[in-house]
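Each lists chain and fold; for instance:
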Amino acid sequence: MPASSIKYRHLGRTSAHRQALLRNLVTSLIERESIATTWPKAKEAQRVAEKLISLGKRNTGEARTKAESYLFNSHLHIPKVFGTLRERYANRPGGYTRVLRIEPKKDDQAPSAILELVDGPRDMRFSLTAATLLKRREDGLSTMNEITSMNVHKVTRFRPGGEEDLEKEITRLKNLKLRDEERRSKLEEEGKEIKEPTVVRWSAGGGRTRKAIRNGGRTDKDNESGKTDRDDEDWEN
């Protein structure tokens, strides 16, 4: 199959408007570590975010100047890019971000997605993996199947103290579930209406997702970029 001639998605905007949109999305991602947007916007912002974090890992004067020129309110975010994130991804060769498909709020809305930084406090796959392990333990299953084992490896291999953090996340989710069961029991005793539980707070950082996550929370096969650090000759058009 011939390679596509489309170098990037135009997103239905002029070049200047597209650039401003992506700058805003990437700045929000660096600040919050997880953002919800449309699938096309998430994929384009992912490309830029990967390059930005690569600049942070390079940690040179030229790289810092380039990053400062791209981010909004750069004085607030440059320390994180060249400090926290550079240290977090020191041993990771690429794939600093992940895109997860989610159900749109409305039926006629464009395909939606969450763009997140991996190995951070709002890493959704990390929390979903912890939830899967919790469910298997509750069901009395002592071993992991192939998919779960693969996900555990993915979310812990580049994360400092990954296995320990995963156990902490399992405990956190277990406590959330116990509190919800206690709340429901109390409402039943008082004869009050029991509403559906609040959307599960999958991540310790407070990030929430909508209830329906396609593919059981799994990413598409190419959602983690898996790219290695490289020169940024095509920083953004």
